[in-house]
Design brief:
With 318 residues, the protein is of the alpha/beta class. The protein contains eleven helices and twelve strands.
């Protein structure tokens, strides 16, 4: 494409599109001439339009986000769940499922935790997958109840879902142990296990779920603890939200510790210095204390360097 190029900007390779050069008496006249020529070129072109320079809309929304070419490409990758924009370069950011089993969404009130879970759920709906939404008292997931998923709103429904999940877990667990006995590497095990259809389990409120299981007349605690501790690489993925206030109140519970012990997730609302679970040591301390606007998530250091530090999540409204 003429006028399209790459430039090294502060160590990052950016794509740019050169504008038309025209001779005019003033800026206004020049812009009008460029606009007219661009319109003429647009009408004359019958092929696929050039890929626009990536940008984050002022008010990003799901209806536009999930139509992006990069979103569709990542969606087709069985190992990626595209959920946001990378704040640094406006590229589509996707969660790499190989490195995430129990994914915790932290943040303050009204910081975008629930919206992020909804975006994750909506992306999962566009994959071939089994999906379960475990709702809270605010019924944040109620609009998905008729979307062909497992919708859970009480302990009886949770017990019934776990009863369906148990044979799936047993089959996959046996396969995983078989591969381990064959001395397969973890990456090889994950690749083989990913042939199973994935399960995405979304938890609107981790504290409420843990309390529900602990207080229920149905015996579920043993199974839930077992799957949290041993379910990695079964192609089953958990996503759960917790406020920093609730984290302080439930800290120490064995189910909660098993879930958050993987130390993977995202933090909304800024002030990451208050998050004692995820690792934000790569962020200067003064930056850690800053408040972030709703919808901006801070990602921890995964241990192998930080590719994406902050994400911007589109509004989940469909």
């Amino acid at each position: 494409m003429k006028g399209r190029g790459l430039i090294d900007y502060e160590g990052r390779i950016l794509e740019f599109q050169a504008v038309l050069a025209v001779k005019a008496e003033n800026d206004y006249e020049r812009m009008e001439m460029i606009r007219a020529q661009c319109e003429e070129m647009k009408l004359a072109w019958t092929g696929k339009p050039a890929r626009p320079v990536p940008e984050i809309p002022k008010k990003p929304v799901w209806s536009e986000f999930h139509k992006l070419d990069d979103y569709r490409k990542q969606l087709a990758d069985k190992n990626v769940l595209p959920v946001a924009y990378d704040m640094s370069n406006a590229q589509v950011y996707g969660i790499h499922l190989r490195n995430n089993y129990c994914y915790t969404v932290y943040g303050t009130a009204h910081s975008g935790k629930t919206n992020f879970l909804k975006v994750c759920l909506q992306a999962a709906l566009e994959k071939r997958a089994n999906i379960c939404a475990i709702d809270n008292e605010a019924h944040d997931f109620h609009s998905y109840a008729s979307a062909g998923i497992h919708y859970v709103e009480d302990d009886k429904g949770l017990y019934e879902f776990f009863a369906q999940l148990l044979p799936v877990f047993k089959e996959r667990n046996q396969k995983k142990h078989e591969l381990q006995r064959q001395d397969c590497e973890e990456d090889e095990i994950y690749e083989i296990m990913s042939a199973y259809e994935p399960y995405f389990i979304f938890i609107a409120d981790l504290k409420s779920l843990v309390m529900l299981i602990n207080d229920s007349e149905y015996e579920m605690k043993g199974f839930f603890r077992n799957i949290l501790e041993k379910g990695s690489m079964h192609h089953i993925f958990f996503f759960g939200a917790i406020s920093l206030k609730d984290h302080q109140e439930i800290f120490g519970d064995e189910l909660y510790e098993a879930f958050t012990g993987y130390k993977t997730g995202v933090h909304f609302g800024g002030n990451t210095a208050e998050n004692r679970v995820l690792n934000f040591e790569y962020v200067p301390y003064m930056e850690q204390t800053k408040v972030q606007p709703p919808g901006v998530g801070c990602l921890p250091d995964a241990g192998a360097g930080v590719d994406t530090a902050k994400i911007v999540v589109p509004l989940a409204r469909r």
